[in-house]
Amino acid sequence: MFLSTCFKKFLQPRALFLGLIVFSVSAAHGRAVTYGNLSVGKFYNVSRAPHSSYPDRWANDWCSGAKLTDEDTGIAWPLDQWVGWYDEGVYSLDIILDLGKVYEVDKLRIRLSSRQQYGIEFADSVQFYTRSDTSEQWQAYGSAVTNLEESYSYQAQWVEQQAGTVNARYIKYELISPESAHMFISEIEAWGNIANSWKHVPDWGCYHGAYASNTNYWMSLGTFENQIQKQSSITLWYASMGASNFKDYLGSLWKSQYGLTYNLDYSGARLLEVGWEPQANITAEDIAGGYYDQYFETFFTESIDYANRNGNTDPVWLRPMSEMNGGWTFPPNAAAWGGDHLNFRRAWRRMFNIAEQVGTEPHHIFVWSPNGYTYSSLHMPDNYYPGDQYVDWLGISIYPQGESPYPEDILTGTAGPGSFDFYGTYGYKPIIISEGAYRLDSGIDGIEWINQWFDLPYNYPMIKALVWFYIHDSETNSLVTEPYMSLYRRRLAEPYYLTQSVAGVVDLDRDGFVNLCDYEGLAGNWGGNISNLAGDITGNNTVNIEDLLIFSEYWLKNL
């Protein structure tokens, strides 16, 4: 088959896949593998209930409780963070941990206590098991651990096995409890490799868009795009957790976007980033304790069901509980999800786990997004990070803040005492500037600020999306003021800023558009009439996801 020189130039470094999307770009080279505690925050179930005096807490439909994976290993006394069992004639106890997906596991451990003075003893034996799927038989991981040395006074001990690397989603901790004594457990752990997700990341280029309030027409996304003279590939909209469900609100917004676009075709053209915020006065501890469990289940189920029924293959981008390190999200403010490191991490993990349990996590992109500037050293962003297995993209808000309030300084932690080296810490994951804008009242050089904004994806290649906060106030009205609008428009015209929301589809000529021009080299072999072959379903002379699937299938058959 003949391929034009131009086509070969762009195809050569990319991989060709046979699968759901037949012709695609491999972005897998960007996936980082990290190592950590896979089990932290994960759901588990126990074979028998603990003693009523030493219960677990925060159970729901998918788990027996939360204490055994909550990061708190407990202290000698009181035993609030320990879960206790008494033999009561039944000596075996199974704890089955669900990691949510298959991981490479190389270490398992459980923390037990002994205090014979109070009738508390170690388990008589501990055996670990693993399996990848519920249809498989349990496989022993290492040998049973027995004969743990008891202590009259308080002693806590990790029982651990490192017996090589296995692929596992489910871990079973099998314990034989001591006769006529209490057995206490504070934490279970599974350690291993985390293959960081790489969802909807453009192989080349950067998404761009805005939060465009529709309070007035001139605040709509349509008006924004008319001003910038380029179609957005992503847009931000805020939604309250529990105020309405996906079907009644975000589903229709995702499909038609009348409120945002005034009849611009949204579905399949622009990604939707949801700024997902708890209702007033709901704290991180409330969410960690299950306040939103039913809502999360409904939202996640309806979102993927809605996508399937309406043919929208784009993921739902979720940016929950953002700017948790900014004082405006601390109680007693109405926005009260910040200010509590431990329970924020617990709340995030619980939300993510529910998405896994209902089977919709692969169809959502979870964006963990702190503010770029922290007003207290106690609340630096890393204190709130839930773990690599719980985050798909990293986000950050960038506004003129700090002693050197320019985008690059804020991103790299050189903006002053409240800044944090965000890129140096998290630059192994795809990054979105979740929101940001130049402030006219900041007193700094706006030309330099906007130029740095657009330079970020070139200088820091893991930045794959920029979202401008476009609402008429002192933060953002720079875009209705010259010379800032002209500069913004000129920089945005660069091909690197994508007009399409597709990822893994080749922008062969790298002009910022995925369209018919990219496939001229292929079409030439069939007389140049690419529309007949690619299946221009919409008839708008633009190749979209559906068109590319049909065309690539035809192309593969004719190799």
From TrEMBL:
InterPro entries, per database record: Dockerin_dom_sf, EF_Hand_1_Ca_BS, FA58C, Galactose-bd-like_sf, GH, GH26_dom, Glyco_hydro_26
A Pfam family this chain is assigned to: Glyco_hydro_26
Catalytic site: 323 (proton donor), 435 (nucleophile)
GO molecular function: mannan endo-1,4-beta-mannosidase activity
Record-level GO BP terms: polysaccharide catabolic process; substituted mannan metabolic process
Gene3D superfamilies, per database record: Dockerin domain (1.10.1330.10), Galactose-binding domain-like (2.60.120.260), Glycosidases (3.20.20.80)
Signal peptide region: 1-27
Domain F5/8 type C: residue ranges: 31-193
GH26 domain boundaries: 103-501
Keyword list, A-Z: Glycosidase, Hydrolase, Signal
PANTHER family: GH26 DOMAIN-CONTAINING PROTEIN-RELATED, MANNAN ENDO-1,4-BETA-MANNOSIDASE E-RELATED
Family from the record: Belongs to the glycosyl hydrolase 26 family.
Designated name of the protein: Beta-mannanase
